[in-house]
Write a structure and sequence with these properties.
InterPro entries: Signal_recog_particle_SRP19, SRP19-like_sf
GO molecular function: 7S RNA binding
Shape: globular
GO biological process, one term: SRP-dependent cotranslational protein targeting to membrane, signal sequence recognition
Family: Belongs to the SRP19 family.
Radius of gyration: 19 Å
Number of strands: 3
Largest sheet: 3 strands, antiparallel
Low-confidence stretches: 128-138
Biased composition (Gly residues): 126-141
């Protein structure tokens, strides 16, 4: 086993042990997922197809202690690398007080990630490119549909 592998639950584990950190999968924040498929934030707050790298970048910038694991969410149907990854986040210190007072719960961590991921430079480039393509592609595909109907 690897040195940082997560073992079985033990009540003697400290809050600083990785086994006690919360888990966040990209599906928790994905606006394209339903609640049954694993989304855990409101749909109006959720973001489209977040990756574990984006979540990691945002939470690391917020000053949280994080770890990345190559795990697959059990409700995820796609086996693509885009949907792989699990983020572990430390919420409490060994004495039981909050590691970062700005993030008292797992929900506060997930909502922060949802607010900050759209502001990433990689996301802003994608959104601008998609809008330009959809406007140009929309008129082109409309012309194609008309030709097909004739």
């Amino acid at each position: 086993m690897a040195a940082n592998a997560v073992g079985p639950w033990n009540d003697k584990k400290k809050h600083s042990d990785r086994e006690r950190w919360i888990c966040i999968y990209p599906a928790y924040l994905n606006s394209r997922k339903t609640l049954a498929e694993g989304r855990r934030v409101p749909k109006d707050v959720a973001i489209e197809n977040p990756t574990h790298q984006e979540i990691r970048d945002v939470l690391a910038a917020a000053g949280l202690r994080i770890g990345v694991e190559d795990k697959m969410y059990s409700r995820e149907r796609s086996k693509e690398l885009l949907f792989r990854g699990r983020i572990r986040v430390q919420l409490k210190n060994d004495d039981g007080c909050l590691f970062n007072p700005n993030f008292p719960t797992r929900d506060s961590v997930m909502l922060h990630a949802c607010q900050m991921i759209p502001k990433l430079k990689t996301r802003q480039g994608k959104q601008g490119g998609d809008q330009g393509q959809s406007q140009g592609g929309g008129s082109g595909s409309g012309a194609k549909k008309k030709k097909g109907r004739r």
